[in-house]
Write a structure and sequence with these properties.
8 helices; 200 residues; Maf protein; 7 strands; seven-stranded mixed sheet; alpha/beta
Length: 200
Amino acid sequence: MKFIKVMINEIILASKSKVRKKILEENKLKCYVEPSNIDEDEVKKSLLKEKASPEIISKNLAELKANKISLKNKDKLVLGADSVIDLNGKIISKPKDREEALKILTDLNGETHYLISSVCISQNGSMIWNYTDKAALTMKNMTSKELKIYLAKIKDEDLYSYNVYQIEGEGRTLFSKIDGDENTIMGLPIKEIKEYLGTI
């Protein structure tokens, strides 16, 4: 398949993540947002049945998002992204309510988990580039009361949009050790994206 060479002055972000949009704009990449609205839970269930790894799940979700939006936008570059939490081989998804958020934090408490972020750039409905990175995060041993105090500080919008914590905000206080790229943890490994865009 032939891909069209384009001027990289604008990219479509197939995500409603305000953090991802902010990272792009801080790196002088003009973007506009067109969320894919795919059913992530159904895709995850299907892939888990096939015993897909967390990395494959993250990559496939990013690709599905980018391909869906790029089909509607001829010749434009579309960036899809997805992040998953891997705790001892178990995928942890975004919480649906505060009770579930507390359970997730309790599961992560005192443990090391991996935050896996995948990005995909598509054009005319097909992936032309992708990249997956992961970071290791070790959570402090915290009491149930401390976890509840933390959750009380987090707005609903932030709690349900991200994987329980925002590393650029209050979430940093949860961890005793962080090993990995901060932009990966925030859901967008921008260095590699810029390197790729600089070659096309």
